[in-house]
Amino acid sequence: MAEFVEFRSEEMIPELEQMERIRLFDKGDIRLIAKRRKEFEYKIQRRTKCKEDYLRYIQYEMDLLKLIRVKREKLGLIQKKAEIDYSIANRVNKLFKQAVFRFQDDVRIWLAYYRFCKQVRFYSTVSRMLVRMLQVHSDKPLLWKLAAQWEFEDCHSVENARQFLLRGLRFHPDSKVLYTEAFRLELQYAALKRKQREEKEAAEAAAQAAATAADSSGTPAQTSESSSVSLAPATQSRSGDEITDQVIEGRLAEVIYETASKKVSDVAFLISLLSIAKDYSFTEKLQAKIVNDLLSRFPDDELTWDAMARRELEGLSYSADPPVSDALSPNNEASMEIVEEGASNNKPAIKNPLKERIRRCCAVYTAAVKQLPTERMWTLYLDTLFELNQDLSHLPTFKKKLLRAAFQGAHSAGLMIEKYYLHWVDILEKSKKYKKLGAVLRVATERIPSSVELWQVRLRFHLSKNEERAGIDVFQAAIARLGSENAATLPLWKMLLLYCQTKSSHKVEQVFRDGLQQGPAVSAPLKPMFLEWLVIMKGIVAARKVYETLSIQPPYCLELHNKMAALECMQPDINVKQIRKCYEVACEQFGKNNTDVWMEYVKFEQKRGDPKNVSEIYWRALKNLDPMHTDIFVSEFSLVKTGLTAPQGATT
Questions:
Q1: How many CB atoms are closer than 10 A to CB 367?
Q2: d(Cα 649, Cα 386) in Å, to the nearest integer?
Q3: How far apart are CA 119 and CA 85, in angstroms?
Q4: 3-state secondary structure of 496
Q5: What is the pTM of this model?
Q6: Residue range 498-511, pLDDT digits in tens
C-alpha cells in the first residue's frame, strides 16, 4: 500500500513544483497540500474501501481547483494551466471513476460525477458515464430523462436523445416522466427545425432579391451567373438533407401522444401534455385532439373542466361561439378547432379582450359546477378567480364582483372549503357587511365544525361587537364541538379571558377555573397565567394559596413552579422560604430526568439564597437524576462553579 502511495505522491511533484514556480502558493502551502494528498491516498488504498474517503478526497481536490481559479483571476496568471488545472481535473476524474466502480448503487455519486464533468467540460466522458450509469440504474426513469436532456440540449443530438428515451420506455412502459420528456423533445426539435427552415428561406429570398436587383441595374451577366451558380449547391443540399414535413409539423409528437394516452389513463397527465403543446404555434390540431380526448374520456373529472376554463382565460377558444357549456359538452359533435387570440382562419380574428376571456372562463366554470357539484370543482373555480383578484390593475370591479358571486354560489351549495370561507369573511369584514358576516360565520362553523380558525373568527366577531351573551354561546359551542382535550381550543380560552379582563373583570376568575378543569393541553398553559392574574388582582397571598393546590394536582406543570418562583422574586420583601418551596416541589416532580430544575435551584441559592446549600443540592441531584442525565448535570454544575457561565435563571 505504501508503495502505491509513494508512487502517486511522486506523480504529483511536477504539478506542485509548477504551483510554486508561478507563485500560486508558497512553500508552506505546497507542503500542506502534499501532506493532505498523501493522507487521502493512504485512506483510499486501505483494504476496506470507504465511500466517504473518496468523497472527501474529491471534495478537497475540487476546492483546491476553485481556489486556483480564484487566485489566477486575482493575480492575472494564465500560465501552466495544462500542468496544474487540467492535471487536478484529471485526478478528480480518476477518483470519480474509481468511486462509481466501487459504489455503483449510490446514485448521488453518479450525479456528482455528471455535474463535475459538465463543469470542467469533459463532454465525451459524460456520454460514456451516462451509458454506464443507466446500465446499473435502469430502474430510475429520471436518470433516462437526464441522459436524454444531456444529448439534446448540450450535445445537440436528437437521435441519441430519442434512443435514451425509447430504451427507457422499454424498461418503464407506463412512465409519465419519459413520455412527457419525449413529447416535449419532439416539439422542441420541430420548432427548432421550423425556425432554421424559415431563416434559410429568408436568406435565399434575400439573395434572390439581391440578384434580381443587380440584373435590373445593369450588372454584367457574369455576376448574375456566378450568383446563380453559388445558390445551386445550397438548393441541392437542401433537397438532400431537409427534415421531412412530418417531423417539422410535429407528427412525431402526435405519435408519442397517441402511445402515451393509451398506456397512461390519467387526466392530469393529458392536461400536462396539453399545457406543453399550447406553447407551440403549430400544434393546433394536436391541441384539438388532446381536448377531444379529455372531453370524451374524462367528462366527469373536475380537472377536465378546470383545464377548459383556463384555456378560455388564456384566449384559446373554439372557432364557433355557441354557449360555452354546449360547446364543451361531451355529446357535442361540432368541430372543436382552436383559435388563438389574434389568429386568422379564413375569417376575421375574434376579438378576445381580457374581460371577454374572463367572462367565457366563468361561463365554463358555471356549467361545470352545475354538472359536477363537488367541493373540488368549486375549489378549482375559486382558485382561478382568487388568482385573478391578485392583480387588480385591470378590471378590479369586475373581478371582485365575480369572486363575490362565486363565494355566494359555493356557500349556497354548501361546498366551500375553510380557506375560502376565511377569505370571504375578510372581504365582508372590510366592506362592513356585518349582518351578512354573522350569518356566513354561523353557517361556516356548522358545516366545518373542526375548523378552529373559523370558530376564532366567529368568537372575535361577537366579542368585538360587545355581544357577550352570543360570544359565550359561540365559545361553549366551539368547546363542545372541538373537545376539551384539544390543544387547538387554547386560543379561544385566551380570547375569552382577554375580553373578560377588559369588559367583565368579575368573570375572569370563573373563566380561569373553568379552563383548569379542561384537559392538560388547555389547563397546563392556563395555570401560570392564573397565578400571574391573581398576583396582580388579589396579591401574592391569594396566589400562594392557589399554588399550593395546583402544584400537587396531576398532571404536573413545570412552568407553574417557575412562574411562582419568578413572582415571589418580584415582591418587595422576598420570602426565601416560599421560593425554596417552589424549587423543592419542582425537583421532586421533575428531578429525575430534568437537569434544569436542579440548576435553577443552584443558581437561586448562589445569588439570592444561601450558598452553603449548593453542595447539598448537588448531592441530592446526583442521587435522584437518572444515570444518563447525571453527566450532563455535572458538566453544567462545573461551569457554573468555575464562573464560565453567569448564574442567571428564572429567578433573576
A1: 20
A2: 50
A3: 13
A4: helix
A5: 0.79
A6: 999 998 888 999 99
